Amino acid sequence: MLLASFGYYPKWNKGHTEAILSWDVSGYYMYLPATFIYKDLKKCSFGEKIITDYSPTYDFHQAFEHESGNRVMKYSMGQAVMFMPAFFIGHSVASMSETYPADGFSTPYQLAIQIQSILVAILGLVLLRSFLRKYFNDASVAIALIAVVFGSNYLEYSSISTALTHNYLFLLYILILRYSERFYNQGHKAKYAIIIGLLVGLCTLTRPTELLTALIPILWGVNLFDPASIKGRLQTIITKFPIFALMGVCCILIGSWQLIYWKYASGDWIVYSYQDQGFSWLKPHIWKGLLSHKSGWLTYSPIMFFAVVGFYFLVRKWKNNGSWMLLYVFLFIYVAFSWDIWWYGSSLGQRTMVQVYPIIAFGLCAVADKILTSSIILKIISVPLVLFFIYLNLWFTHQAHHGGMLHCGMMTKAYYWKTLGRWEKDINDLKLLDTNEEYNDQTRKNVQVLKATEQVSLLNTDSQYSERITIQGTQDKVDWYRLNADIELSQKEYDIWKMRQMIVGFYNGEELIKQKFIRIDRLIGERESNQVYLDVEYPTKPFNKIEALIWNAGSNKSCKIKQLTLESFNEQ
User: Fold this and answer.
1) What is the DSSP letter of 424?
2) Which CATH architecture best describes the domain 438-570?
3) pTM for the complete prediction?
4) Is residue 431 over pLDDT 90?
5) 3-state secondary structure 460-485
6) CA-CA distances (angstroms) from residue 329 to 296, 318, 389, 407, 431?
């Protein structure tokens, strides 16, 4: 983990959107420089300068314009609270330095955040191991930890993208588990109730949906398949109500910090800071979240299939905790994948699952224990699978960074299977991130030029569309269409949503029957000229018009289209 963090891909010395303080992390963190450096928690007027100097994001979306006239932070403040030790160390170093500005984003801050974050990850693993060893033998625990660290996306979010909330929540989860056990084993002591309440409050302050962690101390030791066990817990809560109330008060005490901030910044006690983003509780994206090629948890951490199987053995062996752990994982998945942005940005697999790995590790231990005590045949089957899944995870992690073949959050089924396991890149494969159709044969039969543009098109802020090719009617005995373009980029567009698009659409009257597109900027380098083409298979539905063009997609960078040609051809 240390080698990955400081040797393989040290984000603390990366720039712009690859820095440790970039994207979501910069939003979690922004409370600290706003409060302690710029003294500007309401207006965040320093934000644009941070974007100009460091480019952690393309624009200052870490805070949004509230109707009060102030800016309100998008993200909750829990992660900023946990970042405070590293922030103050980084600020002290920068303040004494003649090289680095004390502006909250220079190298000392980046390095301090990365060091603290990897230490948090290591501490989380150490505590998880000692906790698991109470219930499983050393070999099973070792296998489970190896599976988590090397075989799942935990490696990415503990070691490389280590400053995201998931690594810190992983530690908070294991602490809640440990203190919940002590709370019941040592007579419901008030000190443990206070600690648990503060931990649950900090989880909720970090990600509001983590209020779900309140179920852990409530359900610890309960067999959900036994009504007597459930009744006994309810009686305990009633009998010890003042202690449980103390737990709740401590949770609210920490969680209320966010309410106080909202009141200070906006004048309102409650602010929905995610604006147009929300949950679809009645239509959760569970299947996509688990198995999609775009960002499925099990698709990119297939070793966790062992954990899924392991919960069966866990429930059978350890009903008093296995049953509620299984329920908790189900509830967590439901909540996580009810979020409409279910792929969670540029997420390697499902980063939101990382924080619940301390519970899932029990399932891994249970299946490891079963394999170790089973026949040699099961071992012969399992060991190669585990090794293969570890190899696959290391491949995914490498390709998400130096390899460059994994495009997190943008993956498609066609691109996934075309590139899986390969080490050499083919730039034309990037088309499959936008279209699922590709003509693989180098030779084409019966090639016919249908129409070509007659003038050069210069695309820029004021001119968003190239000259349009329109073909009326249909062509018989045609298998494919190819749109060719001779393109010159004056400047490459890196914002995925503003990349120029080559588009072919098929219409039946005014009804769009089929449309395919590719993003040009994926395929051409800075200040390069190149031939780019898009292949589209003949539609299955009838059509009477084809339209082909290039769209600038809102980019303010210019692009010259020297020639646009639409061809038809047949398969060889």
Assistant:
1) S
2) Sandwich (2.60)
3) 0.94
4) yes
5) CCCCCECCCEEEECCCCCCCEEEEEE
6) 16, 16, 22, 27, 36
